[in-house]
Fold:
Amino acid sequence: MSVENIKARTLDVGSPVAHAGKGVNRGPHSPAVHRLNENRRALLAEIDNAKFSWFHVKVAFVSGAGFFTDAYDIFAINIVSVMLGFLYGAGTFSDLPKRTLNTAQEVGIKIATPAGVLIGQLLFGWLGDVLGRKRIYGMELMLIMVATFGQTLCAPSVAVSVIGVLIFWRFIMGVGIGGDYPISAVISSEFSSVHIRGRVMAAVFANQGWGQLSATLFAFIIVSAYKHSFMDDDPSGVLHSLDQIWRLVIGLGCIPGAIALYFRLTIPETPRFTIDIERNIKMAERDLSVLLVDSETYTVDADAVDQRVVARQATKLDFRSYFARWSNMKILIGTAYSWFALDIAFYGLGLNSSIILSAIGFGSPKSGLAPGASVYQSLHNASLGNLVLSVAGLVPGYWASFYFIDRWGRKPIQFMGFAVLTVLFIIMGVAYNKMNASSGGRAGFVVLYCLANFFQNFGPNTTTFIVPGEVFPTRYRATAHGISAASGKFGAVVAQLAFQWLKDVGGPNRFLDHILEIFAFFMFTGILSTMLIPETNQKTLEVLSNESQDDFIQRKHNPLTLKVGQF
Structure:
């Protein structure tokens, strides 16, 4: 469906057509239309001032479960790619501990999902504004579950390599994950009252931390459960165990999605979409009743019954007109570039933490071990190292943002995060070789690594998700969030391509110090892009849309015959 084909619709208030024209002022600012605008403002005010309720908890849980699944599926590949290298890398069984995927395979495995996410964010963001949030909410989880299950069934064949099939399914899974970003952000934003909106959105996004933690925790538990096989089995038994382990780690990602699916399919449409896009105040009142603790009834005046009304439309012409204004375009540039800069480092580190830990010798296996035992110790230590990074930095950072987001505001947290990250990456890059020369230095590097993870999440990783879900008008909110998020995933793809081909310049892992310095540069540019975005704390979505709300609804002189209620 083309955006240009979205036509003005009747504001259906549920009264019979037979009363058309009775007592209606036909002027451009008729009392009937004025009352419709007053009803709209009253309904929006109820949402903005609503008390915290169990429905807010439900929204946070339903949206958050998706982000748990997303993060689990994205970051599980960090340890799984190591297992795939052991299984499908070149060499004999005696070379097993040194076997790895080649550069092309490593890049393909790690960029397939971010590339799919980019497509999904743009596609589902646009669909969320055209079809509605509710109509497509849940479709992305179905896609994720099918693709995750497909990955667990991948097998080598004569015509197709297992890595190639796995890349395909991870791309499809990425499309579903991408759809979760704009729709979950917009739903949690539009259902939340002003005073808790930041915390609700931060709680949704914080599930990404639990997903990352769970991926490493489950990998650690499953690898530990197979210890006897690595230590005692013959070569075929060790390879068989490796094949089972990576499929179990990936397949477990289906469970949280399956739990959340029913609730996503039954969540109501957001009242803001119903009012401003479908222009059905009576339906919006019913949707609102699930949100309010003390629901108030609104009655639309009978004189307004058959006014055919228009409001600002989501058309290509209106899109160009809205973003042609620098005051609006600079915000989109600010949200998009900030997310791009952040994801250069966030995914550059997040998807390659096992490589970095191995490069500094953190938890490397002892020499002289049998191939199976060496593989076990490598996987055990890599899982444990990633577990430490998650517990010490990633998860606490999300919840620090949750605590301060409605106190400090979004912009100060983003400024602080980018500034601290700039300093940390400069220190890590400049002092990398010196720290890597001693055990104490390596421990110090891990501490700095944990701090970087902490300030990514208590900083721009959280705020770049929240701000695009607040600053744009309802008709473009999901689309603009999708554009901003897709810019971030473009950064993730660039980071993976650059990381894999740069890290070995001058020798194995010899360029890692300069990669960290490059991350510092992008963090500094994030400070500059943050200046383009407004502070959104304790402001209504309508104020942040940068549009006048007076006469938002207007009478149409040539009434259409199609009613919203007929859809």
Summary: The mean pLDDT is 84. The CA atoms of residues 73 and 253 lie 6 Å apart. Strands lie at 309-310, 554-555.
